[in-house]
Amino acid sequence: MAGHSKWSNIKNRKGKADAARGKIFTKIGKEISIAAKDGSDPELNSRLRDAIAKAKSNNMPNDTIQRAIKRGSGELGNINYEEVIYEGYAPGGVAIIVNALTENRNRTAGDIRYIFDKNGGSLGNSGCVGWMFDKKGLIIVEKKDGINEDELIMLALEAGAEDLIAEEDSYEIYTEPTAFSDVRLNLENSGIKMASAEITMIPQNTVQVTIKEDTRRINKMFDMLDDNDDVKDFYHNGDFLEEG
Question: Of 89, 16, 24, which is closest to residue 55 (Cα–Cα)?
Fold first, then answer.
């Protein structure tokens, strides 16, 4: 599969999450609540099962998880979160997809537009950059704890994985979205510790950003998106030069 390593980006996000635990719990809680709309039993609802696994990997307390499930199923009153996708460009022609979970579309749309405008970007119409990305399941397993690569490949492929790429410090397992839950569950049941497991958007090609000011503005945009409670995740096709 063509593409570039996602693990450094994921590690950076995890580091920020550790520094703002309450904020990440809010985001994952919304994700659980939306998943629970389709049923509160994770054994019968694979999307909810995956969201709970994500919550546990971020050390979210069980009572917080259960409250989020009850909110989604209506036991604690009706909170109608919606999934909204925004697409546009950052400086340097970098394409960005923002996935938001909100109970107030107008507020969130205004916030996202402000973040783009503030940092030299521009929001576009739905679909304007989505065609540049492929929706995939992505599971990250770090190269530690005596992980056997051949065994990992066998476990992943027999559960329906599409590809496994060995990076310097991790293995990246790619799946079709429909196979993601089965692959993640098979690895979990086999005792494989996953550093990250999510449905993500993989860019088909990347755009190299060489102007330092563009890099600075894009990083500021990313920080503001991270800080917004309504933003579940965002994806981009930027390739940034390391500062030397």
Answer: 24
pTM across the whole model: 0.82
Say how far apart CA 128 and CA 75 lie, in whole Å: 38
For 105, half-sphere exposure in the C-beta direction (CA atoms, 13 angstrom radius) is 6
State the amino acid at position 6 in one-letter form. Answer: K
Instruction: Collect the ranges in the chain with pLDDT lower than 50.
Output: 1-3, 244
State the Cα–Cα distance between residues 32 and 49, nearest whole angstrom. 9
| C-alpha torsion sign, points 33, 233, 158, 59 | negative
- Confirm if 234 and 201 have CB atoms less than 8 A apart: no
Pick the CATH number of 133-203 from 3.40.980.10, 3.30.465.10, 3.30.70.980, 3.50.50.60: 3.30.70.980
Q: What is the DSSP letter of 194?
A: -
Distance CA(95)–CA(35), nearest Å, equals 28
* pLDDT in the model for residue 244: 40
Tell me: the pLDDT tens digits for 126-136? 999 999 999 99
Residues 6+ apart with CB under 8 A from 119: 90, 91, 217, 218, 220, 221, 224
Backbone angles phi, psi at 233, to 5 degrees: -165, 165
* Mean predicted lDDT score pLDDT of the chain: 87
Instruction: Give yes or no for a contact between 75 and 58, defined as CB atoms under 8 angstroms apart.
Output: no
Whether domain 82-131+205-237 has CATH 3.30.70.980: the reply is yes
Q: What is the pLDDT of residue 18?
A: 54
